Amino acid sequence: GLEIDLYEFNRTRKRSVGFGLITFLFPQVLGTLAVWYFLGTSWSAALLVASMFASHTLLAYPIASRLGIQKTEPVTITVGATIVTNVLSLLVLAVVVDAAGGAEMDALFWLRIGIGMAVLVFITWYGIPKLARWFFQNVTESSGSQFMFVLSVTCACAYFSNYARMEPIIGAFLAGAAFNRLIPERSPLMNRLSFAGNTLFIPFFLISVGMLVNPGAMLGDLEVWQVIGVMVGMVIITKAFAAWIGGALFRYNRAETTVVFGLSVVQAAATLAAVLVGLRVELLNQAFLNGAIGMILV
Questions:
Q1: Residue 41 in 3-state DSSP?
Q2: What distance in Å separates the CA atoms of residue 277 and residue 268, rounded to the nearest whole number?
């Protein structure tokens, strides 16, 4: 949430939202059908796995920065589309988990989801900036107080997202986006947040995922390799198709379309969140965790 360039998103918001919907819908719909047909899963599991294809993570963005193309339109709309794909993918995750928990998928269920999400967005987007401005004006970062404030607010938003029937990662993402314009990119606070994230939270998250992976299960297990093949194949095919559709609509040349594909095909954060939650509620098994790791590596 902190790393997304909201200024660039606002500048190209129509195309960003348009491409975000394209690169979410095609992988979500085609992926659901492919997983259900080829792997024989339930519809709930197929929807959850397809949501991993639909999201994307900006791991390749530093490459674009090194090449000096980070301000070009194909890059900026793909970065903006990250907001759309991640939010929608996480919403799919939340709905599927509720359904797996026995929730009735009636009108009242969707009303609660809508109201809960609206309240959560209102609190984060309008409440956090007002509170943060007051705190940052009255408390300096010399003692690390601002750092603790940001972490506390983020944890609170993650916790309260449960009342909105959302996964905690949605609250954390919205909190990061709300803090986005309030924390300068080159500031002691951002340095501390980046250090904590890159050297503490992300490595421990990846370690915990690595401890769940069973490499021995991949040896001689055709089901695991079938899952990996379907997941890797579908994320590449559907993201390439979405990039081609977007490139044709926006009249991009071949190189620009390929850049859009290269940025939008990369998986990490939301994918890991979805597969771990799927394991927790027993919608997915170990084979899908190995498949997700294989998809991220490829």
A1: coil
A2: 14
Angle at 78 between CA 8 and CA 122, to 5 degrees: 60
- Helix boundaries (H) for 40-144: 43-54, 61-67, 73-100, 107-122, 128-138
d(CA 201, CA 250): 38
Helix (H, G, I), strand (E, B) or coil at 268: coil
Q: Where are the alpha helices (DSSP H) in 184-285?
A: 188-196, 202-212, 222-250, 254-264, 269-280
pLDDT at position 83 over 80: no
Span 152-190, pLDDT tens digits: 999 999 898 888 777 677 788 789 888 988 888 888 888
Q: Can you tell me the distance from the alpha carbon of 261 to that of 274, in angstroms, rounded to the nearest whole number?
A: 22
CB 212 within 8 A of CB 272: no
* C-alpha Rg value of the chain to the nearest Å: 19
Q: Using CA atoms, how far apart are residues 106 and 263, in angstroms rounded to an integer? A: 37
Q: How far apart are the first and last CA of the chain?
A: 24
Q: What CA–CA distances, in Å, run from 270 to 40, 55, 70, 210, 266?
A: 23, 7, 23, 16, 11
Note whether 278 and 291 are within 8 A (CB). no
pLDDT in tens, 228-272: 899 999 999 999 999 999 999 999 999 999 999 999 998 877 788
Q: Which two tokens stand for residue 64?
A: 């674009």
Report how far residue 99's alpha carbon sits from residue 169's, in angstroms, rounded to the nearest whole number.
18
Reported residue count of the chain is 298
